[in-house]
């Protein structure tokens, strides 16, 4: 259940000088960031974007989930390979991405599911992900029977655009002005989900927003964007509350 005194502490995602409320742990061959509320049997796996599991922005989101009553774990799904850095040459990005496939995370997810179940007492587990991680969420919603629900935040559609028979309720969050995900792709995804999906799903486009808006750091937030950023965070929490 959400913490009723602070039903959605969205403000914690607006502090970039933020060390995190959780701790780093080693789960078999994977490093992970974990943040836990006092007592719960519900957990959410947080899948990072190309900037990796240590990005403060992503840890805000994990801490926000914990403040809303979920065990939140953000594993290093690059498993020790370097995350992308803003200073890297974008001309090399496609080569870099070839060794970090969003559909090749099943082994790591199984390890994390076992940890959440055996070490944390989790009985209901969902997943959220951003960008690269959003695509990974779609992959997991298509095939992993152990997850209850997922939220894909500006997941890169082209990775899995030909597959839409989801196993679990899935919420897709997109930005209207996303340079990486054209609205035609979002429309096509909606059409395919309508044709093929037998579970609950939702596709929502947030007006005027750009890629990465939900986990944006404070200094990059324009005042006119803040209501949509908070709405996106609340929508994410509400979807998880509904299905976990």
Automatic annotation (TrEMBL):
GO terms for cellular component: cytosol. PANTHER family: CARBOXYMETHYLENEBUTENOLIDASE HOMOLOG (PTHR46812:SF3). This is Carboxymethylenebutenolidase homolog. The keyword Cytoplasm applies. Residues 30-244 form the Dienelactone hydrolase domain. Pfam families: DLH (PF01738). Its main location: cytoplasm. The gene is Cmbl_1. InterPro entries: AB_hydrolase_fold, CMBL, Dienelactn_hydro. GO terms for molecular function: hydrolase activity. It is found in: Cytoplasm, Cytosol. Belongs to the dienelactone hydrolase family. Keywords: Cytoplasm. The lineage of its organism: Eukaryota, Metazoa, Chordata, Craniata, Vertebrata.
